[in-house]
């Protein structure tokens, strides 16, 4: 039997405690080696309300991942404002809250998201 990685254990621990609802959906962030993605999800309905990613985004080309994360944070903040979402629960997917995640969160907060 394969042993679970530390990241998957932390991810499961965070997801056990963080759940989005209709009035306070979940902001889920995924950072890969190349791209950054964020989604605002209503877990009660099982629907993605707002999403943003650097895949195919022209203004994110040639930038560092921290800069890409800040762009996605601002984009998701603006899209959430259009969808009339002001408060979210932050799901960091088992990653440490530093660097790229911190840049994304700060950019989203500047656009008016509360978490």
Textual characterization of the structure:
The chain has 3 helices and 4 strands, in the order H-E-E-E-H-E-H. Strand 2 and strand 3 form a beta hairpin.
Structure summarized in a few sentences:
With 115 residues, the chain is of the alpha+beta class. It has 3 helices and 4 strands, in the order H-E-E-E-H-E-H. It has helices spanning 6-17, 65-82, 100-110; strands at residues 26-31, 36-42, 47-53, 89-91.
Largest sheet: 4 strands, mixed
Q: Structural class, judged by helices and strands?
A: alpha+beta
Widest sheet: strand ordering: 3-2-1-4
Q: Rough shape? A: globular
- Relative strand content: 15-25%
Order of helices and strands: HEEEHEH
Structure annotation, total helices: 3
Notable features of this structure?
115 residues; alpha+beta; four-stranded mixed beta sheet; 3 helices; 36% helix
What does the secondary structure layout of this molecule look like, with pairings?
Blueprint: H1 6-17, E1 26-31, E2 36-42, E3 47-53, H2 65-82, E4 89-91, H3 100-110
């Amino acid at each position: 039997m394969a042993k679970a990685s530390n990241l998957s254990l932390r991810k499961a621990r965070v997801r056990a405690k963080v759940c989005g609802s209709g009035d306070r959906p979940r902001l889920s962030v995924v950072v890969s080696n190349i791209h950054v993605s964020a989604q605002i999800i209503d877990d009660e309905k099982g629907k993605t309300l707002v999403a943003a990613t650097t895949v195919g985004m022209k203004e994110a080309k040639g930038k560092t991942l921290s800069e890409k994360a800040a762009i996605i944070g601002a984009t998701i903040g603006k899209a959430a404002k259009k969808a009339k979402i002001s408060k979210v629960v932050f799901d960091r997917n088992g990653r440490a809250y530093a660097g790229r995640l911190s840049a994304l969160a700060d950019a989203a907060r500047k656009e008016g998201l509360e978490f």
